[in-house]
Amino acid sequence: MSSKNQNQAMQRLRQEEFPVTENKTWFNTATYGPLPVTNVNAQKQFLEGMMMGAGAKGVGHWWEGAAEVRSKVGTLIGCDPRDVALLHSTVEGLSLVSLGLDWKVGDEVVVYDQEFPAGVYPWLALEKRGVTVRFIEDRGRHRFDVEDVEALLSDRTRVVCISLVNCFHGFRAPIEEISKLCHSNGSLLLADVVQAVGALTVDVGSLGADLVAAHGYKSLCSGYGIGFCYVAPKLREVLEVSAPGWKNIEDAPFLEKQLQYNLRYASDARRYENSVPNLAGMYGLGASIDLFTGAGVQLINDWVLDVSAGVVEALEEKGYPVTSSTRDGERSGIVSANVPDGDAERVRAALAEQNVSCAVRDGRLRISSHLFNDWTDIERLVAALPTP
Asked: What is the pLDDT of residue 1?
């Protein structure tokens, strides 16, 4: 697609799908992604149907509808829908492993010391069982190398758990290389992609992670209480079901078998879905994914990185030193910058007064972009930023 056509496509999506842009400059997707119109319409259609007693096709929305949305997730991240579980949050996906592996005293887990807490607490909770959590040290770099991970691996490393895009400074981790390292060591790699999928290309085959999880409310622009988890077939062979329920049973779709109590789990990733998901949110998630795949995942990826690069240039020209990595392959839609006088909250509040929404994380200003941002947003950001 030509640059002109690309710009026209993004502008059309901005105007038709994201009304938040009419009154605000939304550089805050890393906090939560605004819902597109198609998402809200899909949720309303489902909720209004429930209000009026509409029947569901087949045996219920939690079967046919869920299968349809799993298929859409599979298209988005490049996997078989049978490898997708619809869960409620990112940490629920990560906790499948913390609760479902046969942990032994002396086992180790590797995480980054600038990780979002949801990627750390499931492993710290295992310390009472004799599991050691080892931290990749940031050392003020706002990034790390594959070698930093390699230095921590041992023959007792069971899991490495890392965010594809870090929520504090936007570093896009070299997951592809880390996965090769982990698998050669016999370790599992878990990837939190909540700050990436929807804004950047996420292909599970290329990443090589054994489990990939994301809540819908950030870059998927799908709201709260719905998300997905990719669970590789080989991982399912060793990962126990930690929360048995009526829905993760093989015979669950067959109403006539419900009183047989045959505790045989589904062979696909549905085995980790123990209850009905947030159905309205589920249909909204499907609509948001349709929006992303319809626009083109690679097109969105390139657009977001271009806007993010513009944000970096604008911040530095205005006198706000950027701390995010700008190396090739390490950039994302999140840009973190120091505030010269150290009062990032003052700057955030000043921007908010001008209807420019961003966030403060780890004492720095965080600007996060998505497909609906453009160069007019950058101009508004620059105009609203207080001069240091």
From this structure: 54
List CB contacts of 87: < 8 A, sequence separation 6 or more.
93, 213, 227, 228, 229, 272, 273, 277
Query: Do 19 and 372 contact (CB within 8 A), yes or no?
Result: no
Phi-psi domain of 363 (left: phi exceeds 0; alpha: psi -120 through 50; beta: other): left
How many beta carbons lie within 10 A of that of residue 96, not counting itself?
A: 28
Cα distances (angstroms) measured from residue 122 to each of 119, 128, 155, 165, 308: 7, 12, 21, 19, 32
Cα–Cα distance, 246 to 282 (Å, whole number): 19
Tokens for 185?
């060591």
Q: Is the dihedral of CA 196, 202, 205, 206 positive or negative?
A: negative
Asked whether the predicted pLDDT for residue 57 surpasses 80, the reply is: no
Strand partners, 91: none
Give pLDDT tens digits for 152-204.
Answer: 999 999 999 999 999 999 999 999 999 999 999 999 999 999 999 999 999 99
